[in-house]
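ugh ok so i messed up the first submission bc i forgot one of the chains. this is the corrected input, ALL of the components this time, i swear. 287 residues overall. if the numbers dont match what u have on ur side tell me asap before i send this to the collaborators (the ones from the other lab, u know who)
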Amino acid sequence: MPELPEVEVVKESLSRTITGKKIYKVSVKNRNLRIKIHKDFEKNLKLKFIKKVNRFSKYIILDLENNKYCVIHLGMSGTIHILKKIGLNNKTNTSFYHSPFLPKKHNHVTLKLKDMSIIYNDPRRFGFFKIFNNKLSLEKYFSRFGPEPFSNKFNINYCKNYLYKKKKNIKNFLLDQKFVSGIGNIYASEILFKSKINPKKEASLITNSDIKKIIRFSRATLNHAIKSGGSTIRDFKNIGGNKGYYQNNFKVYNRENKNCLDARCKGLIKKIIITNRSTFFCNICQK
DNA sequence: AAGAGGCCCTGATAGC
DNA sequence: TGCTATCAGGGCCTCT
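and heres the new structure output, hopefully the right one now
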């Protein structure tokens, strides 16, 4: 599911829903996510206010009281669901909750607020929850990441220096979070198509003009995707259960053997594997 | 330092 | 119907 745009969509809906609320109870069904959930996890979150919901790259960051932070990564298959309290069963004195989209399996983490529950579901368990005890350790963790495409730091000089003499192909670098943060496998193919650059092109051969296009179309593509509510392939939905629509704008992803959508080009979209990830491009108009 | 490859895990789908 | 193989949007680690 989640590259930067999808995570931004989740972060926005979470922010609208839980900012300023208190966590009353934390329950973990399965601690074995990509990083094992720490034994003090529940203790660190319980009875804390959520001051703010932030995002960096593909990570959601809950700013808590006492300068603690809870970083959430959705991995490949993580989703967040909200269960709203809709009533009380008088006989058992237990609450009813409602969410038509909540999966039955793989609900690993639940945060109970006053009138709702936030539930983390992740079949493949490639996601994780990690607590940082102060701002310094949070900043240290994210210091190894490259800038987001929107950042002024993602500029021509930065790219030129980073790619200088690099032998790997350019698609590898778009996926390399140390170079640029937030781009994943789908948007990498889309950005390179719009930039008219062949994904196999060696990074050291990338020209200034190429770099300008990469910067421009990285920003444009991710922004457009965010505005479309992200991309829904498989069954990504935001926490309210709504789908995104950017997949309707895919120019190359999942379009193997279909016509190139550049009006001037008669090419067909090819699928190749680059470092074990499927990669889509037009070998006529992407040079 | 840079690059190649393996690995973590479940589920959907295709092919027989 | 049921088996097996393959693939999936991420990122870490180790080895050379």
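quick check: The two ends of chain A are 29 Å apart (CA to CA). that seems consistent at least. Chain A is about 25% helix and 25% strand.
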